[in-house]
Design goal:
Radius of gyration: 18 Å
Structural class: alpha/beta
Strand order of the largest sheet: 3-2-1-4-5-6-7
Number of domains: 2
Order of helices and strands: EHEHEHEHEHEHHHE
Number of strands: 7
CATH topology of the largest domain: Rossmann fold
Helix content: 40-55%
CATH architecture of the largest domain: 3-Layer(aba) Sandwich
CATH superfamily of the largest domain: NAD(P)-binding Rossmann-like Domain
Strand content: 5-15%
Number of helices: 8
Distance between the termini: 35 Å
Shape: globular
CATH class of the largest domain: Alpha Beta
Length: about 260
């Protein structure tokens, strides 16, 4: 696999899954554009620590809920990196509440960041990818893009939407050198999921370890978290020649969650 010298833009990449993706690409000699609201200096240092020689690491603080900010992010990638060869749409937020109690502003924010942002980055990245004759769009969806859970209406709606967007974009690029696919993780121990573990522990008076065990036992037969590193290896596979004809899939990496 020769990815050396290509450029990857990974949204929401200052921690968690996105950071793991950025590190994996940098190891392969891919220039990386980071984005997110975490500790930027720490994220840059972690990517630089594993990067192959000559890898350039950039950052843009685009608010992924705002189309104009996303346009500025893509313009930055074009101006400083010559465009985006690999686009990983990973930015996401969460809020948990039942539908009739769900705050409208949280619904709007989740749809904007978890779904609409991927539309905006993709529509802006595809022309350059088509012109080069090669490109990869990798949407980090979720097991909740395939099945539902209670109290997560906005997140489930957004992730189902990402899977649908993936399929349409894959069909529209089917005769080109551009592929569009989605990854659907189950539980991954990111800061977002850790908040859910902490909330459960506090609510039910449990230890963190027991809250974690119960969380996994409810949905994931393996009883194990998927790791950002495992997800990143799948992303690298999508970028390999072996995946040239993998188009429009929603690939579950969920410990058996959707096999039930």
């Amino acid at each position: 696999m020769t990815l050396n010298g290509k450029t990857a833009l990974v949204t929401g990449s200052t921690s968690g899954i996105g950071l793991g993706m950025a590190q994996a690409f940098a190891r392969q000699g891919v220039h990386v554009v980071l984005n997110g609201y975490g500790d930027v200096d720490a994220a840059k240092a972690q990517v630089a620590a594993v990067a192959a020689a000559g890898v350039k690491i950039g950052y843009h603080d685009a608010d992924m809920s705002k189309p104009a900010a996303i346009e500025a992010l893509m313009a930055y990638a074009q101006a400083d990196f010559g465009g985006v060869d690999i686009l990983v749409n990973n930015a996401g937020i969460q809020h948990v509440a039942e539908v009739d109690q769900f705050p409208v502003e949280r619904w709007d924010a989740i749809i904007a960041i978890n779904l609409s942002s991927a539309f905006h980055t993709t529509r802006l990245a595809l022309p350059g990818m088509k012109a080069k004759g090669w490109g990869r769009v990798i949407n980090v969806a979720s097991v909740h893009g395939l099945v539902a859970s209670t109290a997560k209406s906005a997140y489930v709606a957004a992730k189902h939407g990402i899977v649908g967007l993936t399929k349409v974009a894959a069909l529209e690029t089917a005769t080109t050198g551009v592929t569009v696919n989605a990854i659907c993780p189950g539980w991954v121990l990111t800061p977002l999921v850790q908040k859910q573990v902490d909330a459960r522990a506090q609510r039910d008076g449990l230890s963190n370890a027991e809250a974690t065990r119960q969380l996994l036992a409810e949905k994931e037969p393996s009883g194990q978290f998927t790791t950002p590193e495992q997800l990143a290896e799948l992303a690298l596979f999508f970028c390999s020649p072996a995946a040239d004809n993998v188009r429009g899939v929603a690939w579950a990496m969920d410990g058996g969650w959707t096999a039930q």
